[in-house]
Amino acid sequence: MQIIGVRTPLIKPGDDIVNMLCGSLNENEIFLRDGDVLVLAESAVATAEGRMVDLSTVIPSKEAEELAGKYCVDSREMELVLCECDDIIGGVPGAALTITKGTLSPNAGIDGSNAPEGHVVLLPENAQKSAAKIRAGMEEFCCCHLGVIIGDSRTQPLRLGCVGMALGTSGIVPVEDARGSKDLFGKPLNITRKAVADNLVSAAQLLMGEADECIPCVLIRGAPVKMVKGSQEMPIFTPEECMYYSNIKQK
Amino acid sequence: MQIIGVRTPLIKPGDDIVNMLCGSLNENEIFLRDGDVLVLAESAVATAEGRMVDLSTVIPSKEAEELAGKYCVDSREMELVLCECDDIIGGVPGAALTITKGTLSPNAGIDGSNAPEGHVVLLPENAQKSAAKIRAGMEEFCCCHLGVIIGDSRTQPLRLGCVGMALGTSGIVPVEDARGSKDLFGKPLNITRKAVADNLVSAAQLLMGEADECIPCVLIRGAPVKMVKGSQEMPIFTPEECMYYSNIKQK
């Protein structure tokens, strides 16, 4: 299995990300093959899709002002958090802890990093659609069957540091069901599902970094991934089904 | 960056894991180099270290019997969970949700998969020490500077499927501090730490799988990892510092 970072010029609102990637791949003489998986940083995809917001254009509501004070967040950014998230379940200084598009994320995934001063970038509106669109464009360019993942970085409970998380995928099975497999002793397996897409994003994060690397795309070649023709929805736990969530209640 | 699975014979209690790995590497003509990182499955390391327990030798306490009934777990296994964990914070049918060695884990990381019928495998007693010992042995064998990680798989809140998590490391910086780095626009970064060791384990999990693959070791070559001479402790959040944990309370 090989993991290769693809450097691009800085991606700006309105850029055609497929064109830019094709240019960078050509320049680096990287030729895509059947089964290759491209992991794209959500911030680059969202920026190209016009999800960058100039904070000076946002007028915070009273609720946003209150929450902004409580969690020490810019009140205009908090207004965007309220618009983007499904639910706010708490917070710490600097971040409201939200459920956004079904997953836990600080400040609804809104980030001021890698945006010009006074601007923030929202998550892609529909990462599944973004993945499908980029995959279609890239497959046309390279004439082979690819997987595409839109990846983000998140922290885990009681762990320090960011790991990878897939927001949307196309062309691959994002979570593989290992139920029915046998263990080393021929017994049915207890552990049941593999978060393949999340693991691919974590592998890609090693090369993407978080700072000024300008590597918004990572090519993963030779990963034992199940390819599919269309796009499979990311399966998501409801709070009631989740082992962690079902054992907690909000303060 | 390259990721290579290393197949070994089935690892049994008392086996010398360094010897077995060296044999497998030789057989496959894989020659280790400076900066290579070996990710080892905790179940293999724990088994070799004699952490396999015959459940018929365990006498459950009254507390274990009660919790076993509550969470539908074998009462002898629950006795082991009570011995191994720091705290039980809840549970679902089939698993008590515990904090063990500082991290969230179902059933204190005790697993009946990949153990003979009627047996379970506890986590390595001290994964940092295991990593340091294996690294010393492997470095003697290959005469170069390596990183070693003992890896496990865990689920994340509101996500389906297992991802990688590092229990202990040696020779590498497990969590890199990116504070002070600049973003694409030259502003200081908001996101601050990279869980490099967890991401390396997630990358390795893609090749390890969860079932009868017999790939307890994965070699990662060319990862941009910071090497160190000794072993750095895995930094761990206290529940109070954790964004998720500080916002919840137990039922």
Automatic annotation (TrEMBL), chains A, B:
Keywords: GTP-binding, Ligase, Magnesium, Manganese, Metal-binding, Nucleotide-binding, Potassium. The keyword Manganese applies. The keyword ATP-binding does not apply. It comes from the Archaea. It holds the Pfam family F420_ligase. GO terms for molecular function: coenzyme F420-0:L-glutamate ligase activity; GTP binding; metal ion binding. Residues 5-222 form the Coenzyme F420:L-glutamate ligase-like domain. PANTHER family: COENZYME F420:L-GLUTAMATE LIGASE-LIKE DOMAIN-CONTAINING PROTEIN, PTHR47917. This is F420-dependent oxidoreductase. The lineage of its organism: Archaea, Methanobacteriati, Methanobacteriota, Stenosarchaea group, Methanomicrobia.
